[in-house]
């Protein structure tokens, strides 16, 4: 599942809240039948099954720790291995992400951005998770390195039976890696469906604007949708539909009530859209 939206819409906040890295003031997050937001002990017991790959592969790695300690720290904390086995386990994990044993006793600053992100992936894999939340894991990397890391993540997904919540604002990356896509605007999901449905046939006006902004070699004049106005404050969202102040299709109904995320008529892929005009366009 990919989560997309412009910067500041709340994608990273959602990811950090699911993992209880940021406090939740309301709402619900359920994993395998367990509510994560009520009891801190619940997330503690599920922590090995829920892991995260952070956006910046340098600041997310402890600069004072060697790689062998970074990738096995969680396993030692949860009693999954003995300290005498950490070198062997670290070697196996680094091998899974395409790195050699000579990285074991080096520090993060000695590696490139792509290598550091591979180390971050190895650390996440060490706990044998079922779900990995990926917070823009390739946005800080060169394009050629992005492709290598994405291919690695897809291979690991298939080999280990992983699920990803993949946060990104790069729709070309999303099209490549995701099965389903959720579009967020100002803290709310406004459209959700298969990657093909959402990217090729968007129903929500905001999704259309996002997709039209993707650079293309052959782009006719007028194809790009330029949204007017500024993004409202998340602390004081507008009444009704949160997108209506910038929406080219908004009418008086959009200002009265916030639309629910509901299925589209005649759609077989389970697409849901939060727009009163979703079946008109």
Q: Mind explaining what this structure looks like?
A:
The structure is a single chain. The strands form 2 sheets. Strands 4-5-6-1-7-8-10-9 form an 8-stranded mixed sheet, with helices on both faces. Strands 2-3 form a two-stranded antiparallel sheet. With 281 residues, the chain is of the alpha/beta class. Strand 5, helix 6 and strand 6 form a beta-alpha-beta unit. Helix 3 runs parallel beside helix 5. The mean pLDDT is 88. The two termini are 25 Å apart. The radius of gyration is 21 Å and the shape is elongated. It has 2 domains: 177 residues, P-loop containing nucleotide triphosphate hydrolases (Rossmann fold), CATH 3.40.50; 80 residues, no CATH class.
Describe the SSE topology.
Blueprint: E1 2-4, H1 11-18, E2 30-31, E3 34-35, H2 40-46, E4 50-53, H3 67-77, H4 86-96, H5 113-125, E5 131-135, H6 143-160, E6 163-168, H7 171-177, E7 180-185, E8 188-194, H8 195-200, H9 205-212, E9 262-263, E10 272-273
Parallel strand pairs: 1-6, 1-7, 4-5, 5-6
Antiparallel strand pairs: 2-3, 7-8, 8-10, 9-10
Helix pairs in contact: 3-4, 3-5, 4-5, 5-6
CATH architecture of the largest domain: 3-Layer(aba) Sandwich
Q: What's the CATH topology label of the largest domain?
A: Rossmann fold
**Major β-sheet strand ordering:** 4-5-6-1-7-8-10-9
Radius of gyration: 21 Å
pLDDT averaged residue by residue: 88
Distance between the termini: 25 Å
Query: Mind telling me the CATH class of the largest domain?
Result: Alpha Beta
Sheet with most strands: 8 strands, mixed
| Low-confidence segments | none
Percent in strands: 5-15%
Number of strands: 10
CATH superfamily of the largest domain: P-loop containing nucleotide triphosphate hydrolases
Helicity range: 25-40%
Could you spell the SSE succession in H and E letters? EHEEHEHHHEHEHEEHHEE
Question: Structural class, from secondary structure content?
Answer: alpha/beta
- How many structural domains in the coordinates? 2
């Amino acid at each position: 599942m990919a989560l997309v939206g412009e910067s500041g819409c709340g994608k990273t906040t959602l990811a950090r809240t699911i993992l209880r890295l940021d406090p939740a003031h309301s709402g619900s997050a359920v994993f395998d039948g367990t509510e994560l937001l009520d009891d801190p002990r619940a997330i503690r017991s599920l922590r090995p099954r829920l892991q995260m790959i952070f956006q910046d592969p340098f600041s997310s790695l402890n600069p004072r720790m060697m790689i062998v300690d970074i990738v096995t720290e969680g396993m030692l904390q949860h009693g999954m291995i003995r300290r005498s086995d950490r070198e062997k386990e670290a070697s196996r994990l680094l091998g899974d992400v395409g790195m050699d044993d000579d990285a074991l006793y080096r520090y993060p600053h000695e590696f490139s951005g792509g290598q550091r992100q591979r180390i971050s992936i190895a650390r996440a894999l060490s706990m044998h998770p079922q779900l990995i939340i990926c917070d823009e894991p390739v946005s800080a990397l060169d394009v050629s390195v992005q492709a290598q890391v994405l291919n690695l993540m897809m291979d690991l997904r298939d080999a280990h039976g992983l699920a990803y919540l993949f946060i990104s604002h790069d729709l070309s990356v999303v099209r490549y890696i995701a099965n389903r896509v959720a579009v967020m605007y100002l803290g709310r999901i406004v459209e959700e469906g298969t990657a093909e449905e959402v990217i090729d046939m968007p129903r929500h006006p905001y999704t259309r604007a996002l997709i039209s902004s993707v650079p293309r070699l052959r782009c006719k004049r007028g194809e790009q949708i330029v949204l007017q106005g500024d993004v409202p404050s998340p602390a004081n969202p507008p009444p009704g539909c949160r997108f209506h102040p910038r929406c080219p299709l908004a009418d008086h109904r959009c200002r009265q009530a916030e639309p629910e995320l509901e299925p589209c008529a005649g759609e077989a892929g389970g697409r849901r859209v939060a727009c009163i005009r979703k079946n008109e366009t």
